[in-house]
Amino acid sequence: MRLDVALLPRLLRRPESSVCLLIDALRASSSIVTLFARGAEEVVVAGSTTAARRIAAQEPAIRAGGRYLLCGEVFGLAPRGFDYGNSPGEFAALDMRGRRAILSTTNGTKALRRLAASPAVFVGALLNATAAVATLLAEARSRVIDATLVCSGLEAGNAFSLEDAFVAGALVENAIEQTRRTSGDLTLSDAAMAACRLYQSYQGDALACFREAEHGRSLIGIGLGRDLELCARVDLYDAVPRLRSDPSGRLSLVIDGR
Description:
- Helix content is 41%, strand content 17%.
- The protein has helices spanning 28-37, 49-58, 60-64, 88-92, 108-114, 129-143, 162-182, 190-201, 206-212, 214-221, 225-231; strands at residues 2-6, 18-23, 42-45, 68-72, 100-104, 121-124, 146-151, 187-188, 242-245, 251-254.
- It has one domain: putative 2-phosphosulfolactate phosphatase (Alpha-Beta Complex), CATH 3.90.1560.
- The protein is of the alpha/beta class.
- The protein is built from 11 helices and 10 strands.
């Protein structure tokens, strides 16, 4: 099986031919994984804050009953009228059992929507690294197709993200280790090898990478430095969200079997 890394969403030219795992290291992937680890039933993927508000308005009875949370960020902070931003630190303190969220972010949710043509899309972060890689590899092998780690990037997917490439490299190394233990077959693309070398250049120190990254510095500047520490933790959770589309075309993330 071939493992690739798309350093920007648009570099995945044929999403229909690959099982994908979306990475938005700071912070959507970690936020999504944390929401599910706290018991969330569903995270609706909104393409913009306007779309998120529209979805929330279509569910007034449910949201009034406390089951939906309107979450997201613009320039790192929660938009006016949203219940929460895009902070795994905030979400880690919530009890999400029986509840759902609507999420809109600058990079992560937009990237997820671009991957909808893939036969299977998962969300990965350092927080669920081993479980996410195991799920990705098993799904790709069962379908006999390639697997791709897709970096959300910056500026709505138009600019390279150091932290996303670092996490992609961490997951590539994890995939190599898992494959070695099972005596399986794994071929790396050039981009996968490059991401792995980037990860190794930091000697696995995620927090050092996140603090050096442009987006990490921006989050520190607006008082959200603690989120970097949370996003740098490895294998804290085993939840692996999967993207699905309902009959109306609405995209959301769920946990299989929940």
